[in-house]
Amino acid sequence: MSAAAEERNARAPWALTAPALMLFVGVLLIPLAMTVMLSFHDWGQYKGIEPVFILKNWHEIATDPYYAEMFWRTFRIAILTTLLTAVLGAPEAYILNRMSGGWKSFFLLIILGPLLISVVARTLGWALLFGGNNGLVNKLLMSLGVIRSPIPFMFTETGMVVALAHVMMPFMVLSVWAALQRLDPQIENAATSLGAGPATIIRRIIMPQIMPGVLSGAIIVFSLSASAFATPAIIGGRRLKVAATLAYDEFLNTLNWPLGAAVATLLLVALVLIVVGSNALIERRYAEVFR
Amino acid sequence: MRRNGPLALIFHTIFVIVMVAPILVVCLVAFTPEGFLSLPTNGFSLRWFRTIANYPEFVHAFWVSLGLGALSSLVALLFAVPAALAIARYRFRGRDALAALFLSPLMIPHVVLGIAFLRFFTSAGMSGSFAALIIAHVIIVFPFALRLTLAAATGMDLSVEMAAISLGANGWTLFRRVTLPLILPGVISGWALAFIQSFDDLTMTVFLAAPGTETLPVRMFLYIQDNIDPLVTSVSACVIAITMTALILLDRFYGLDRVLAGKGDTGR
């Protein structure tokens, strides 16, 4: 290869990625930096936003117990949602994986398809099912004798967790399903031939091997639940606030943009730390699986 | 292959019913002949679908969503295809960092993106405009367009290009006549997945949309905030039908499992 051609080759990838790179710097990195700066600006009911550098918003978030309670609620809902999806999604992925070809792809489509259906429509479905004290879910649970008095689902954390778990379930099933694809089915047969029962096989053979899948699914579900907006806003109504709906209120109702920007920045930083940290932990703990 | 026991099948049946129930109930209520929310027990009626026509803001929002999804996915591909070819073919310094940057909109909460874009476009004097919506949507659908194009470009047989070059093709001709047709299934699937993402986005768009540029999810969300009636179920049923159509197309062209397998890594 001539020197000119080699030089062209070295420049080619940069020429090809330059438009996208400029787009991302111009309309992603700069707006994000502007948001972080905004969180240090001052705001007043009558004077609007003042471009000064103060810690007022951060101080308010750190000291006012309202924000601690709201962030704690956000993460509590996200943790419960993650647990629910893991406890139900992992067995379902295992059952799916044992089905024969045609059924497997049919049910995979049914379970994963909702991932691409509008979150507003899916949450609306739950609002209809919950619908007050005599909603369909309560009627069904009472007629089955599971509960005596109706559980309030609308405008409660219980309802939010159920609806969010439904919205996030496909991510968990997918993640565990991907882990199951790496599993050698002969290991189960080997365990049976050595005298292990079904319970032992699940506990000693299957569980340790799909754990990385469950954990990486849990990270996805957790980060998406903690920043979810549509489901908490529709099920929680105007009273029960989580981080995303609070930021929305500050921006579009109260118009206190600097405070809203501080809430959003804190959410982003917390999530990035949690996701990066737990990813690193999982990869160290299960290094042999990822090799 | 081992079989599932009866307990496993009962669990599976309940699981599938719960997964489908909310979507099914929306579609059923949409056909109610009554004037209030109820399951259609006395026959089916299309009255609530006809009522949509009396609400021009829903019809307008639908066209905004459709145009926004189609255009922003197309623009995203214009940027993503060259970037995907570079990432797939060259090993250069900063390649991993670039790929991470291009996929980063998947990791940033949409509420944060919405706030960042609102701040940015307000300073630029573009807030609430359709152009601002397009630019914002290009960013959020970019990872999906990039990922499917990248998969196609990585799997491509380079010897075909070599043959074309030896026959005298180069530059634009090479791309248009050889490379593009070979990666086209990936590009079309990338467009379809990007379209669905744009068409369904609420969280980011709700910050940017103004009266006149409200998308369908935003219009539906604002409507639900005030009251829930059968009208919003019939609109939802239409949205579900459109997404299903795009889903089936994706499945035919590309295989849904491959599309979704890519989506499973969003947290990485």
Topology at a glance:
The complex is a heterodimer of chains A (291) and B (268).
Chain A: H1 3-38, E1 42-44, E2 48-50, H2 56-63, H3 65-97, H4 101-112, H5 119-130, H6 136-143, H7 157-181, H8 185-193, H9 198-226, H10 230-236, H11 243-252, H12 257-285, H13 287-290
Antiparallel strand pairs in A: 1-2
Helix pairs in contact in A: 2-3, 3-7, 3-9, 5-7, 5-10, 7-9, 7-10, 8-9, 9-12, 11-12
Chain B: H1 6-29, H2 47-51, H3 56-89, H4 95-103, H5 110-123, H6 130-154, H7 158-166, H8 171-200, H9 205-208, H10 216-226, H11 230-253, H12 256-263
Can you describe what's shown?
- The complex is a heterodimer of chains A (291) and B (268).
- Chain A has 291 residues and is mainly alpha-helical.
- Chain A has a single domain, classed as Orthogonal Bundle (MetI-like fold).
- Chain A has 13 helices and 2 strands.
- Chain A has a two-stranded antiparallel sheet.
- In chain A, strand 1 and strand 2 form a beta hairpin.
- In chain A, helix 9 packs antiparallel against helix 12.
- The two termini of chain A are 36 Å apart.
- The model of chain A has no long low-confidence stretch (mean pLDDT 89).
- Chain B is mainly alpha-helical and 268 residues long.
- Chain B has a single domain, classed as MetI-like (MetI-like fold, Orthogonal Bundle), CATH 1.10.3720.
- Chain B is built from 12 helices and no strands.
- Chain B is globular, with a radius of gyration of 22 Å.
- At the A-B interface, helix 1, helix 3, helix 4, helix 5 and helix 7 of A face helix 1, helix 3, helix 4, helix 5 and helix 6 of B.
